[in-house]
Design goal:
Layout (H helix, E strand, L loop, with lengths): L13 H28 L8 H29 L2 H24 L3 H29 L5 H26 L5 H20 L19 H12 L2 H32 L3 H26 L5 H23 L11 H31 L5 H28 L4 H23 L3
C-alpha cells in the first residue's frame, strides 16, 4: 500500500472522489465564466462596476457557509451520507439548468441566485465528504484518502477555472458553460449512486430551523476536544493565507510584475500543482500514519518561503522581458513551494480532525470547521481591503501574512508537542 492510488480502484473511495472532483470542477467552471464575462462585458448586464461585482460574487457564494453549515452538519449526522450526496447532486443539476437559462436571457438576478445556490450546495456537501471518509477508510488510509481528495480538488479548481476562462471568450460562452455544467452535474450524480451506504451512527438528533442554534452547537462540539479545535483553527489559517494569495494574484501580476492574463494563469497553476504535490508528498512521508511533525514542517516552510516571496516581490524590478527576469523565476519557485508546504501542512490536519472527532458528532464538527474557514477567509479579505486603503502595497501584505504565518507556525509547533 505504498501508493494511495489503489484507493481509486475501490468502490468505497473512487465514487466519492469522482463526485467531489466533478463538483469542484463545476463550481469553478461556472464562477470563472461568469466573472470573466462580467469583467469584460458588465455594461451589457448591469450598471454596477466590475470592481464591485467580483467581491459580490464571492460574498454570495460564502454567505451560506455562515447560515447553513450547522444545519448541514446535523443532517449529515442524522441521515445516510450517501443518500444525502445524491440529493445534493440533484440540486447541483437543477442549479446548472438555471445557470444556462440565466446566461441565455442575460438575467443577472438568476445567475446571482445560482451563485448563492452553489454556496448552499458546497455547504451541504462539505460535512458529508469529510465525515464519510472515516466510515469507509481504515485508520491507516486516512492520510492517503485526504491526500487524494486535496490534490484532486485543487486540480479540479484549476481545470474548472481555466475551462471557464476559455469558454467565456466565445460569443455564447455562458450558454456553452451552462450546458457543460449540466453534463458534469449529471456525471457527478451518476458517480454518487455508487457511493456505499454510510448510515447515521445516531438518530438522537433534533433538527433546528434556526440557523444560529446548530451553528453554535457545532462550534461547541468542536471545542470539547482541544486537539480537534486546534486542528480546525490551523486549517482555517491555511485557507485564510491561500485565499489571500489567490485573490491578490491578478492585481499583483498586473501592478507589480507588469504581466498579463497568461502570467496569472501560470502562477495559479504552479500554486495549485504545488498543493497537489505537497499532498502526495505528505502521504509518502507519513507512511500511512498521522505525523504531527509534518504539520510543523509545513507551517514553518510556508512561513519561510512566504517571507522570501514577500521580500522578492517588494524589490521586484520590471524588465523588457518578464521571462528573462531572474526575480520572476524566483517568485515562481517560491509560490510553488508555498503550495507544496501548504499541502504538507493541511492533509494531516484534516486526517487528525477526522480521526479524533467523536463519530456521533463528526459531521457537526466538520461543519464547525467550514464555518471557521469561511470566517477566517472573510476576515482576511476585510483586512486586505483595509490595508490597501491605507496605502499598503500587495507585496507588503504578502510579507506581513508570511510573518504572521511564522508566528502561527511557532504556536503550532509548541502545541504539537502534547500530541
Amino acid at each position: 500500500m505504498s501508493s494511495p492510488l489503489y484507493l481509486l480502484k475501490t468502490q468505497r473511495f473512487a465514487p466519492l472522489f469522482t463526485t467531489q472532483f466533478l463538483g469542484a470542477f463545476n463550481d469553478n467552471l461556472f464562477k470563472n465564466t461568469l466573472a470573466v464575462i462580467l469583467t469584460f462585458h458588465a455594461g451589457k448586464w448591469t450598471t454596477l462596476s466590475p470592481s464591485l461585482l467580483a467581491p459580490l460574487i464571492g460574498a454570495l457564494f460564502i454567505l451560506p457557509f455562515f447560515l447553513f453549515s450547522g444545519m448541514a452538519g446535523e443532517l449529515a449526522d442524522k441521515y445516510d451520507k450517501a443518500r444525502l450526496t445524491r440529493i445534493v447532486k440533484l440540486l447541483e443539476f437543477f442549479l446548472m439548468a438555471l445557470a444556462t437559462a440565466g446566461f441565455m436571457f442575460h438575467s443577472l438576478e438568476l445567475l446571482f441566485s445560482v451563485i448563492f445556490g452553489l454556496g448552499v450546495h458546497s455547504t451541504l456537501f462539505g460535512p458529508i465528504k469529510y465525515s464519510i471518509l472515516p466510515q469507509h477508510m481504515h485508520e491507516n488510509e486516512l492520510i492517503s484518502a485526504n491526500a487524494l481528495i486535496e490534490s484532486g480538488t485543487f486540480a479540479a479548481i484549476l481545470l474548472g477555472t481555466l475551462s471557464g476562462g476559455i469558454l467565456s471568450t466565445y460569443a455564447n460562452g455562458g450558454i456553452l458553460a451552462g450546458g457543460a455544467a449540466m453534463i458534469l452535474a449529471a456525471m457527478g450524480y451518476q458517480a454518487s449512486r455508487h457511493i456505499p451506504n454510510a448510515p447515521s451512527l445516531t438518530n438522537d438528533i433534533s433538527l433546528s430551523l434556526n440557523p444560529i442554534t446548530p451553528t453554535l452547537h457545532s462550534i461547541t462540539h468542536a471545542r470539547k476536544n482541544p486537539v480537534v479545535f486546534a486542528s480546525i483553527l490551523s486549517i482555517s489559517w491555511f485557507w485564510l493565507y491561500g485565499a489571500l494569495l489567490l485573490t491578490q494574484l491578478p492585481p499583483f501580476v498586473k501592478i507589480t510584475l507588469a504581466g498579463n492574463e497568461t502570467t496569472v494563469t501560470l502562477l495559479l497553476a504552479l500554486f495549485t500543482i504545488g498543493i497537489g504535490a505537497g499532498s502526495m508528498l505528505c502521504n509518502l512521508l507519513s507512511n500511512h500514519t498521522i505525523r504531527p511533525s509534518l504539520i510543523a514542517v509545513g507551517a514553518i516552510g510556508m512561513a519561510l518561503v512566504g517571507i522570501d516571496f514577500g521580500l522578492t516581490a517588494q524589490h521586484f524590478q520590471t524588465a523588457n522581458s518578464l521571462y528573462s527576469n531572474l526575480s520572476f523565476w524566483h517568485i515562481l519557485i517560491d509560490l510553488t513551494l508555498i503550495g507544496v508546504f501548504g499541502g504538507l501542512y493541511s492533509v494531516p490536519l484534516y486526517a487528525l480532525m477526522q480521526m479524533l472527532s467523536d463519530p456521533v458528532f463528526r459531521s457537526r464538527i466538520i461543519a464547525a470547521n467550514n464555518i471557521l474557514n469561511a470566517l477566517f477567509m472573510v476576515a482576511g479579505a476585510v483586512i486586505t481591503i483595509l490595508l490597501l486603503n491605507q496605502g499598503w502595497s500587495i507585496p507588503d501584505i504578502f510579507l506581513t501574512m508570511a510573518l504572521c504565518t511564522a508566528v502561527v507556525a511557532g504556536v503550532i509547533s509548541f502545541k504539537l508537542r502534547k500530541i
